[in-house]
Known about the structure:
The chain has 116 residues and is α+β, with helices and mostly antiparallel strands.
Amino acid sequence: xxxxxxxxxxxxxxxxxxxxxxxGCRNAYNNxxxxxxxxxxxxxxxxLRKNYRILSEINVEGKSKTTKSKLRDRGFDFDxxxxxxxxxxxxxxxxxxxxxxxxxxxxxxxxVKKDI
Length: 116
């Protein structure tokens, strides 16, 4: 029985376990499968990526301080994060993947990077 490409339906020539006729079809198929299914999801993912990029640009050393206004001026949205971590000492860290921040006094923020 001839195998056919999962993307375009063309006959596949080559290895027995091949699923696609070429790189173009493999990429198109995977892009279709992995795309954000709704605008809502896409918008949230874009905000998370933007927040992550801002923290990464400011927190080059892995641990630093910044101000709320500096984060806001760059477009940081404090409503979007991936994880909230409560420590035993009572501190609360807000993370976007491995980049996080903790609220300090006087509108200062401690930026941290989680070791993964």
